[in-house]
C-alpha cells in the first residue's frame, strides 16, 4: 500500500529528512512516533506532495508519488487531516464536508454526509454552523469527515487529538477504530502513546529525520530502552 524508501527532504539548504524508510499494507494502522522537530510532519507533507522531496521514493498502490503535485496525490486516494485542522472558517459544517467531496477512484459504497454524521452524530446537530464557530473537537471530527468525503484509501492524521479534551479524544480513537479496515489504511501522528499503541499494527519512530525503530505495539511496549531513548517515557 505505502512504501517509502530513502526519503530525503530539505527546506532550502537545511536538510530535515535523511532517508526515511517505512512500509505498511492495506487496512493497516501505522504510526509515526518521535519527539518534537524530528521530522514527522515533514514526512507526511512529503508523502502528500505539500513539500517536494529532494530524493528517495514513495510508492503508493504501485504509483510513484515523488514529483507529483499534491492535488494528484489526493486524487490517487490519500486524504490528509492536517495539523491545526484548517477548517474553512466561512463555510458551514455541511459546506465544509461537501466542498472537496469526490470519489476519483470510484470506490463502492462511497462516503456521504449521512455516513459522516453516523460516525460523528454530534456533527449532525451543528450542520448549519459556520466552521469558525465550532469547538476544537467538532472541528477535528469535521476535518476527519472532510478527508473521508474524498474517499481515500489512506487517511493520514497529523496530531490526531492535539489539544482536545479526554472525552473527545476517546471519540476520535473510537471512530478511527471503526473505519479502519479492508479498504482504508491509516497513518497517524499523535502524542498520546497509549491510545496510539492500542490502535496501531505497526509503529515507526523518527529521530532526526531517520526511522530508527519499527515494530508492533507489543514489541514497542516491551522495548523499554527504545521507549526511553527515543520517546522519553
Ligand atoms: N517550513 C519549514 N522551514 C524550515 N524548517 C522547517 C520547516 N518546517 C519544519 N522545519 C524544521 O524541520 C524539522 C522537522 O520538523 P517537523 O515539523 O517535520 O517535525 P515533527 O516531528 O513533526 O515535530 P512536531 O511534533 O513539533 O511537529 C524541525 O527542525 C523544524 O524546525
From TrEMBL:
One Pfam family matching this protein: ABC_tran
Stretches that traverse the bilayer: none
GO MF term set: ATP binding; ATP hydrolysis activity; branched-chain amino acid transmembrane transporter activity
InterPro entries from the UniProt entry: AAA+_ATPase, ABC_transporter-like_ATP-bd, ABC_transporter-like_CS, BCAA_Transport_ATP-bd_LivF, P-loop_NTPase
Matches recorded under PANTHER family: ABC TRANSPORTER ATP-BINDING PROTEIN, HIGH-AFFINITY BRANCHED-CHAIN AMINO ACID TRANSPORT ATP-BINDING PROTEIN LIVF
Family to which this protein belongs: Belongs to the ABC transporter superfamily.
Protein name: Branched-chain amino acid transport system ATP-binding protein
Organism of derivation: Meinhardsimonia xiamenensis
Amino acid at each position: 500500500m505505502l512504501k517509502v524508501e530513502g526519503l530525503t527532504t530539505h527546506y532550502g539548504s537545511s536538510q530535515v529528512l535523511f532517508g526515511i524508510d517505512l512500509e505498511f499494507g492495506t487496512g493497516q494502522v501505522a504510526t509515526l512516533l518521535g519527539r518534537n522537530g524530528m521530522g514527522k510532519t515533514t514526512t507526511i507533507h512529503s508523502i502528500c506532495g505539500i513539500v517536494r522531496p529532494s530524493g528517495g521514493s514513495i510508492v503508493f498502490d504501485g504509483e510513484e508519488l515523488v514529483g507529483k503535485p499534491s492535488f494528484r496525490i489526493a486524487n490517487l486516494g490519500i486524504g490528509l487531516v492536517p495539523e491545526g485542522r484548517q477548517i474553512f472558517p466561512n463555510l458551514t459544517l455541511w459546506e465544509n464536508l461537501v466542498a472537496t467531496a469526490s470519489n476519483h477512484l470510484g470506490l463502492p459504497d462511497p462516503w456521504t454526509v449521512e455516513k459522516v454524521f453516523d460516525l460523528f452524530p454530534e456533527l449532525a446537530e451543528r450542520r448549519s454552523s459556520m466552521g469558525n464557530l465550532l469547538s476544537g473537537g467538532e472541528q477535528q471530527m469535521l476535518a476527519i469527515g472532510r478527508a473521508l468525503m474524498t474517499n481515500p484509501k489512506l487517511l493520514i492524521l497529523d496530531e490526531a487529538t492535539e489539544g482536545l479534551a479526554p472525552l473527545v479524544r476517546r471519540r476520535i480513537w473510537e471512530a478511527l477504530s471503526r473505519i479502519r479496515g479492508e479498504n482504508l489504511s491509516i497513518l497517524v501522528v499523535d502524542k498520546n502513546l497509549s491510545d496510539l499503541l492500542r490502535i496501531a499494527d505497526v509503529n515507526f519512530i523518527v529521530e532526526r529525520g531517520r526511522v530508527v525503530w519499527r515494530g508492533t505495539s507489543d514489541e514497542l511496549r516491551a522495548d523499554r530502552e527504545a521507549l526511553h531513548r527515543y520517546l522519553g517515557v
